[in-house]
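Archive entry. Fields below.
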Amino acid sequence: MTSAASRLNCDHGLRRQAIVESVLREVFQGRLRAGQHLATQQLADQFGVSHTPIREALISLAGIGVIDLVPNRGAIVRRVVAKDVREIFQVRRALECEAVRSACGRVDVAAFELLAEDLTRLKPAQARSSHRKPNDRLLMRSVEKARQIDSRLHDLICSSCGNGFLAKEITRLKTLFRAFRDLAWEHDTSQNDFRRVAEETGEHLAIVEALLAGDRRRAVRAMSYHIRSGARYWTRVLPEEAPGTNGSAPNRGAGRNGRDERKSRVCVEGNE
Amino acid sequence: MTSAASRLNCDHGLRRQAIVESVLREVFQGRLRAGQHLATQQLADQFGVSHTPIREALISLAGIGVIDLVPNRGAIVRRVVAKDVREIFQVRRALECEAVRSACGRVDVAAFELLAEDLTRLKPAQARSSHRKPNDRLLMRSVEKARQIDSRLHDLICSSCGNGFLAKEITRLKTLFRAFRDLAWEHDTSQNDFRRVAEETGEHLAIVEALLAGDRRRAVRAMSYHIRSGARYWTRVLPEEAPGTNGSAPNRGAGRNGRDERKSRVCVEGNE
DNA sequence: CGATCGCCAATTCTATAGAATCTTCTTGCC
DNA sequence: GGCAAGAAGATTCTATAGAATTGGCGATCG
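PREDICTED_STRUCTURE:
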């Protein structure tokens, strides 16, 4: 609502991206529900901007895949439930595993050894802190640091895989991932996150060690486990099925017959 | 040029898509070379339309991945040389293998048995025709039929994998693939294609048989081989390196200072 | 009474002009 | 020769208007 407008105090040339991220967040937060029609005028008023960047943001969103653009009929929000996120994660797993497979044997050893060092240094701190209260300031910093290392590891693998296209695809999925991670994050900033971070550190270490050892099979396996584990964790707050759509806006006969899925295949211009 | 403008006699609401396809074709035909800057005004004049649909088409193209959109600096054509196609194929292989892995055990047996039947029926015809002259009308039909079967197989696997997102990603890559297949196609419509088609039939049969047997490992391996084989074939006509790009646009002072890399990391919104 | 046809409002898409901003090239100065 | 200020060019965004399409509404006809 108004929070969206406030976020648009951004640099010139980044307005579309800001709108994209804002809408993305609203979709994952469920404020924009599945099947909902997005009118450009309404969105323009909401964000306090003109039609043009709205339209462009919608096109970009269609490219990402969260909305469907039907010619002459506007944009429709796609469903985003746990199943969808699991689907995205499956694709991400396939791609990240491929990246690891390619990166193995050609990595920057120094960078990864530094990473391994940071990881092992982080581990005992986490072991200590798992017995403390979660609101500790020190813990927050530890989580923050762990997240940084997570980004570092994945970026490093991306840039080491020798395939720019693959790296770009992974980055795109990361945008999606980040959008609903924020949702899960604000859903419960409890000790669950701290426990998960500790788990993650172990998984990261396994990946790094396998990469440094040049053991391709083990590296892929470790990455696969890592992503799978993340998927289980991050989807836990999402509704298993379309949540309150039946109560509020029963315009979609979602479960009535099988036509819905066919339609989305045919007339959608999502990204082609 | 004018051919582009003629194609825009299309229905209202499909202009963007028409522009997208036209630009896509020009990119893969090499008329729009790598690193080239796409000015909206110039494109608008070329197509005889206004800025607005051009901008939107560029955003859509960025979503597909053939151009990079840099804020406040416009669009830049991505390189498409053999290496890039190989990169795309690597991603496609990862995704299609994942699709096969997921599809294995849950396929529509009847549809695949029908497919296997058609494939085995096609095979002897190809064996016969490999000794004939390539201009034979019958051969052309055989190639056409083989292509249809190829599409049928991949679509069937896509729809059987139980992951809509994955299916959509594969479709997107197929768009990219098809665009430069046209290039290779018009480059030589010689008997090479017929030989390749025969090879493909065998590879397809291997995939289908493994799927019907429920042998996941073998199915994935067959698909991997199939894609790899296709990559080798389709990249043979593409230039190994960027041909004349160094002479045309040396405006990129990439190494001036450290800001460039930060910018490209942060701002390139190719597909976010 | 029900169905088909045509018209109208709403929305989308395109065109056009112009202001603001950013990039880049040029020029002048130290 | 290197660097800063300014100008030119391009891009992005705003705003508005008009054309095209869609979907609903009522009227007419069987």
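CURATOR_NOTE: The first strand of chain A starts at residue 37 and ends at 38.
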